[in-house]
Amino acid sequence: MSNEKIAEMFYDIADMLEIEDVQWEPRAYRKAAMTISTLPVDIKQIYEQGKLMNLEGIGASISKSIEEYLKTGSMKKYTDLKKKYPIDFHIFRKIQGMGPKRAYVLYKKLGVRDIGDLKDALEKNKVRSLEGFGEKSQEQLKHNLQAFMKVKEERKMLGYVIDYFETLADKLRKSGFFDRVEIAGSARRMKETVGDLDILATSKRPEASMDFFTKMKEVSGIIVKGDTKTSVKLDVGINCDLRVVPDGSFGAAMQYFTGNKDHNVKLRKIAISKGLKLNEYGVFRGSKSIAGATEKEVYAVLDMEEMEPELRENMGEIEAAQKNSLPKVVGYDMILGDLHSHTKNSDGLNTLEEMVEAAAKLGFEYLAITDHSKGLRIANGLDEKRFMGLHKAIDKINEKSSVRVLKGVELEILKDGSLDLPAKTLRSMDIVIGALHQNTKMPRKELTNRVVKAIESGLITTVAHPTGRKIGEREAFDLDYQKIFETCSKNEVALEIDGFPDRSDLPFNMVKEAKAYGLIFTLGSDAHRKDQLRFIRMATAIARRGWLEKKDVINAMHYKDVLKLRR
């Protein structure tokens, strides 16, 4: 897809213009990049329909640049700027503390163009002598570089590609060449990031089906082609394996290619202990297949319940399945609303009315508008007066809308643990999400006490994206999470699961840990644009992976019960 490439070019243009101290263009290009990077369809389709300028943040000038790239494969504005700044901004943006101006200083003074140059400069202690850096900055940059290197660049955030994966699988289903097509692997487990795509299928014409697959427009290259397995490169920048398996082995193959490595190893050991053999073709006693057509029968012959794909991580699900004590995890269809979203009033891209209309199309019963509070100036946070105006607008919408709009705020927890808005204003809201965005490098004890003080205020409903991590960019806050969980439990404050792909926060393993404290959770898309409301699905996936049931999730309640809970 062209989306990723164009978005990265626009982010680069924004960084380069920021270096040149251009006042408004960097924001415009970043806004356009954000729009394009999270589109659920290829921007080329939108261009061919003549609807580029219908997209949020795409004006005449930026539209022409997109058209230029789609027609020629290049963009003059980008090329001209890149000659002046031959820096790998794409990678540096992923390293905390490497803003465009810092990157330019390193390039100008030390010739740092890419991650290899940066690593070399840090190892030789060249950075500390530069103005604006120093010993402490150099060590922090080393730490941040190491954190970045732990994340494989080739992995994709599932939230951005899952629609693409499902569209691809649906095209295979509708082609007439296949009897059955299903996504397997980490994408089926709804893991936050994926390194490749596994698709399993059955077909009476495997050779013809593979021919169809390799000729699809999404396929940018063939790695290996066979009658039962074909591997290709997809234009979204990821590899895909398509396997055609016999009907009688389909369940066994789905089980084998869904569970993570540790889950599957443990299952095979259990099979061996029963005198059986388990593989992707079935369960065998000697040479005789005794199960394999469905996943349910594979697990049943091993004396355990079938478990949801999201649970197959070897985190106790096998033992629970043996005791028939698996949780009835919350269903995607049980989620009635979204409890974290933004509008143009702060840093969103759509109006209140547009967000509500989009929520109605998704079938939401309610939508919480949680624009930022005044302390987060970079996000155009609202003060008391602006919130009053927003609430009046919400009241008008609630008179006629099928979607109940909840009044909320993503509230800054200030440096001393106090809150960014007066108690009177906060008590007028349906949901208050306490959040850390600034001054987060405090010592562990101080940062923990800051959050604890906010939780104990009696004014917040839930703690937003509790770890503060951004996948591949920023590590989790250095907090005493056990103390946070205990304090939330004592004060009946919920924890958020933020489904925005970059955050995916709380991580699923911490959700499972927090559940043991008797906590309840809110789910939020953290949508900053109407089409990002779809990320509520990703929050639900994390809830499922963390063993949450319907009773654990506030979003599974009707809005009247949500309001009662707040009161």
Low-confidence stretches: none
Briefly note the CATH topology name of the largest domain: TIM Barrel
Strand content: 5-15%
**Percent of residues in helices:** 40-55%
Mean pLDDT: 92
The largest sheet has its strands arranged as 11-12-13-14-15-16-17
Cα shape: globular
Query: What oligomeric state do these chains adopt?
Result: single chain
Number of separate structural domains = 4
Distance between the termini: 47 Å
CATH class of the largest domain: Alpha Beta
Structural class: alpha/beta
Largest sheet entry: 7 strands, parallel
The second-level CATH architecture of the largest domain is Alpha-Beta Barrel
What is the CATH superfamily label of the largest domain? Metal-dependent hydrolases
Number of helices: 24
CA-atom Rg in angstroms: 25 Å
Q: What is the number of E strands? A: 17
Provide an overview of this structure:
Helix 20 runs parallel beside helix 21 (481-491). The chain is an alpha/beta fold and 567 residues long. Helix content is 42%, strand content 14%. The chain is globular.
Walk me through the topology:
Layout: H1 3-19, H2 25-37, H3 43-48, H4 60-72, H5 76-84, H6 89-92, H7 100-110, H8 115-123, H9 134-149, E1 156-157, H10 158-174, E2 180-184, H11 185-188, E3 193-194, E4 196-202, H12 206-214, E5 219-224, E6 229-234, E7 238-244, H13 250-256, H14 261-273, E8 277-279, E9 282-285, E10 288-291, H15 295-301, H16 317-322, E11 337-338, H17 352-361, E12 366-369, H18 384-398, E13 404-412, H19 423-427, E14 431-435, H20 444-455, E15 462-463, H21 481-491, E16 494-498, H22 508-515, E17 521-524, H23 536-545, H24 559-566
Parallel strand pairs: 4-7, 11-12, 12-13, 13-14, 14-15, 15-16, 16-17
Antiparallel strand pairs: 1-3, 2-4, 5-6, 6-7, 8-9, 9-10
Helix pairs in contact: 1-2, 1-5, 13-15, 20-21, 22-23
